[in-house]
Amino acid sequence: MNGSIHFYDFHPPMADIRDEVLEGLSRDPKQIAPKYFYDQRGSQLFDAITELPEYYPTRTELDILECNGAQIAEFLGNDCLLMELGSGSSRKIRVLLDALQPAAYVPLDISRGHLLDAATTLARDYPQLQVHAACTDYSSDFELPDLPEHLPRAAFFPGSSIGNFEPDDARALLQRVGRHLGEDGKLLIGVDLKKDNATLHAAYNDARQLTAAFNLNLLERINRELDADFQLDCFEHLAFFNESAGRIEMHLRSTRDQQVRVAGQAIRFAAGESLHTENSYKYSIKEFRALAGDSGFVTEQVWTDENQLFSVHCLRCNG
Ligand SMILES: C[S@@+](CC[C@H](N)C(=O)[O-])C[C@H]1O[C@@H](n2cnc3c(N)ncnc32)[C@H](O)[C@@H]1O
């Protein structure tokens, strides 16, 4: 028997994506939001990155969830309506579902095909589970499927995806999540910790160059979907820790003077000019507790691994 699955498509229209990409390319410095990494191939590349020896966040967060499953289940509560932001391949939720029986699971992700595949597989593997998958963009006000109002609400936001947002935008996103959760709603969130530069540098500059392929796939996607003519061999992957900002930055650096056409518009790149594609802010536990507090959440519990690489926070919405 398969679990039930409902799919809701709130994906932003292509015209909005075109306008946002062109606006980002007209800025100085040029910038495109990391949410655009995730077409089908981008999602597959990200999954491959999570298996790399250098990429500590996924295995460390999974370990923390596994070691503390019973307490997490108690915190989130059986029979809750459990949403997940940026659910990707829905791998981490399995650890929670082995300890918890939510009334429904609501994965939210911008990567439509990958979300549908992951939700279908999950519904097959958890036959008692009701899955309401929604393809949506949580970086602005986002819709949820029409779901029962009376159920207690909880959210899971793993992978330190909160670190992709500037701190002000991270606060605004947590406030949006809080509005969907309501008073006393629970939020379980994974946050990457500050650490030595070498560990961080290796995680975003892996020997197999999968992170480079993931970064460059953004240009391939724009070529395909926005009728552009980026030459991928004229851009190189650049990732480094910006100490003063407390974040990893990823860029695509133009190796020459060149002109690219995107959706009918000419875009000039100087040699050495970079297109900023991702920030990944790293927080101390104290810093993240303060950010959560400013966003309407009280921290109830925080777990880390023995090497203090990653943290998982249990937050309660104070309305
Ligand atoms: C860093 S991956 C994390 C995946 C998974 N949660 C994990 O922890 O391994 C980010 C996920 O969030 C999704 N995502 C990124 N930006 C998004 C946005 N603005 N709205 C919805 N989903 C987004 C991506 O498609 C991807 O699946």
Commentary on this structure:
Helix content is 34%, strand content 27%. With 319 residues, it is α/β, with parallel strands linked by helices. The strands form 3 sheets. Strands 1-5-4-3-6-7-14-13 form an 8-stranded mixed beta sheet, with helices on both faces. Helix 2 (40-49) runs antiparallel to helix 9. The protein is globular and about 55 Å long. Residues 35, 38, 43, 46, 50, 58, 86-88, 92, 108-111, 137-139, 158-159, 161 line the site of S-adenosylmethionine.
Poorly predicted sequence stretches spanning 5 or more consecutive residues: none
Content of β-strand = 25-35%
pLDDT averaged over residues: 97
Strands of the widest sheet, in order across it, are: 1-5-4-3-6-7-14-13
Separate helix tally: 10
List cofactors, ions and other ligands: S-adenosylmethionine
Helices and strands, in N-to-C order? EHEHHHEHEHEEHEHHEEEEEHEE
Terminal Cα separation, in Å? 39 Å
- Classify the secondary structure makeup into a structural class: alpha/beta
Helix proportion range: 25-40%
What would you report as the Rg, rounded to the nearest angstrom? 19 Å
